[in-house]
């Protein structure tokens, strides 16, 4: 049986960051990846452009059901943060630049180029990579982990002193992350928090938006309310769809409400024109109505909003005073009924309970068992925070292995 110092289960973002930076005394590292390629999801991130971190890393909280989860992540980010990540990748020969919103991308705007940089480094370091190998079980015999994998050559067992489970969460299973990793770690007595799709499209009441399918509203200010209390606001694009709403602002706001939908009354309040005050809008509409007293009221928002959106707003306020139309533009209400689900989500909210890992992301129940990336109950906002977590968690593990681990 082949024996390794470290077996990394899953060659996604966290697995690749770990394999390209871990230094072990007795060298041998193996990645077991179920897919035919490494970093499939990484190569699709940021609409194929690879938004790998953000200027606001360090000041933006991460979500976790663990009470001190965010504080612990911030501490890890202070050790292995954005600057280190960028320097590391630049050390591999890339150049990374921020956009106007502080989101960092490879200069060539190609996510797969990040995967390539990591792949080349993994090869240079002599890390063994086995593709098409689905890990179906991990057990510990004495101090040694035995990893069973379904390989193209049949079932095989690999042995290692240390295991890093980097199998991702349950989001976007077409990239290989279907939640099977949770089953592997449950055998080590680890518990899972509830799991929710996050960074995902939202299903809403469609009565008032049916006719708007495919229309994008740029720069809308979206506020999420839980039991009528505002919990978060984000500004960005929204796209009306036949099931509800999508777009950058919706993805971002979904992280704040994903775990509340269904359990509590969740709704969105959308300011379709945030840069124009209610007073200004009211005065424009009043003078327009005076000037064109016989005009179709449904056209009153022409020249102010997208025509179809304007008509939908006016239809919603049929028979009501102008002030209702102003209120509807500034706070277009949409009750939320669900999300489009894990298959469409970019991340999983929840995961392996963060209280069950130590400051090195090592299992508190089994020495030498580590967790990296999205499998843990940590998720970040949209904008590069999740790949930053993949990097940071991998470096925390690498640091622990360098200074100890099981050798
Ligand atoms: C479409 C999309 C766009 C995104 N864009 C961004 C972005 O721009 N910026 C950002 O920060 N985040 C983005 N994310 C989120 C980010 O990609 C993930 O948070 C990150 O990839 C998680 O890294 P991971 O290594 O934990 O898991 P993954 O990258 O999902 O990798 C897990 C790997 O484990 C393998 N695996 C699973 N089970 C087994 C098994 N039993 N045996 C062997 N192998 C297994 C899988 O095949 C997979 O390759 C995006 C996600 C999606 C879906």
Summarize the structure.
The protein has 407 residues and is an alpha+beta fold.
Task: Describe what this molecule looks like in 3D.
By secondary structure, this protein is α+β, with helices and mostly antiparallel strands. It folds into 2 domains: 250 residues, FAD/NAD(P)-binding domain; 138 residues, no CATH class. Strands 1, 2, 6, 7, 8, 9 and 18 form a 7-stranded mixed sheet that branches. Strands 11-14-13-12-15-16 form a 6-stranded antiparallel barrel. A 3-stranded antiparallel sheet has the order 3-5-4. Strand 13 and strand 14 form a beta hairpin. Helix 1 runs parallel beside helix 10 and helix 2 crosses helix 10. The two termini are 17 Å apart. The relative contact order is 0.19. The mean pLDDT is 96. The site of flavin-adenine dinucleotide has 40 residues, from helix 1, strand 2, strand 7, helix 5 and helix 10.
- Give the integer mean of the pLDDT values: 96
Name given to the CATH architecture of the largest domain: 3-Layer(bba) Sandwich
Separation, N- and C-terminal Cα atoms:
17 Å
Run of helices and strands: EHEEHHEEHEEEEHEEEEEHEHHHEEEH
The number of helical segments is 10
**Radius of gyration, whole Å:** 24 Å
- Low-confidence segments, given as residue ranges, are none
- As a percent range, the share of strand residues is 25-35%
The biggest sheet, with number of strands, parallel, antiparallel or mixed sense and barrel status, is: 7 strands, mixed
CATH level 3 topology of the largest domain: FAD/NAD(P)-binding domain
């Amino acid at each position: 049986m082949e024996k390794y110092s470290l077996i990394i289960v899953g060659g996604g973002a966290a697995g690749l960051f770990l394999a390209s930076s871990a230094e072990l005394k007795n060298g041998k590292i193996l990645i077991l990846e179920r897919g035919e390629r490494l970093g499939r999801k990484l190569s699709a991130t940021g609409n194929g452009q690879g938004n790998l971190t953000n200027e606001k890393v360090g000041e933006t909280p991460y979500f976790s059901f663990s009470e001190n989860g965010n504080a612990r992540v911030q501490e890890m980010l202070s050790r292995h943060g954005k600057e280190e990540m960028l320097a590391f990748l630049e050390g591999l020969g890339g150049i990374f630049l921020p956009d106007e919103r502080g989101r960092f991308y490879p200069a060539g705007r190609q996510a797969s180029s990040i995967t390539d940089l990591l792949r080349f480094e993994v090869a240079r370091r002599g890390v063994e990579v086995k593709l098409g190998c689905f890990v179906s079980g991990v057990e510990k015999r004495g101090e040694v982990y035995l990893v069973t994998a379904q390989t193209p050559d049949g079932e095989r067992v690999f042995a290692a002193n240390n295991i890093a489970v980097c199998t991702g969460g349950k989001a976007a299973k077409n990239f290989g992350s279907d939640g099977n990793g949770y089953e592997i770690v449950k055998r080590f007595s680890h518990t899972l928090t509830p799991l929710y799709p996050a960074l995902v499209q939202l299903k809403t009441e469609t009565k008032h938006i049916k006719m708007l399918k495919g229309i994008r509203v740029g720069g809308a200010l979206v506020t999420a309310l839980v039991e009528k209390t505002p919990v978060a606001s984000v500004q960005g694009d929204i796209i009306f769809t036949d099931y509800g709403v999508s777009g950058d602002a919706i993805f971002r706001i979904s992280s704040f409400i994903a775990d509340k939908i269904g359990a509590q009354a969740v709704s969105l309040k959308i300011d379709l024109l945030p840069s124009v005050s209610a007073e200004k809008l009211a005065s424009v509409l009043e003078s327009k109505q005076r000037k064109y007293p016989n005009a179709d009221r449904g056209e009153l928002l022409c020249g102010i909003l997208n025509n179809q959106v304007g008509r939908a707003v006016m239809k919603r306020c049929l028979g009501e005073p102008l002030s209702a139309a102003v209120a509807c533009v500034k706070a277009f209400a949409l009750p939320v009924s669900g999300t489009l689900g894990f298959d469409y989500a970019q991340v999983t909210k929840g995961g392996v309970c963060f209280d069950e890992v130590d400051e090195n992301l090592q299992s508190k129940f089994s020495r030498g068992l580590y967790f990296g990336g999205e499998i843990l109950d940590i998720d970040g906002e949209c904008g590069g925070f999740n790949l930053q977590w993949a990097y940071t968690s991998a470096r925390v593990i690498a640091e622990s292995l360098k200074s100890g681990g099981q050798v």
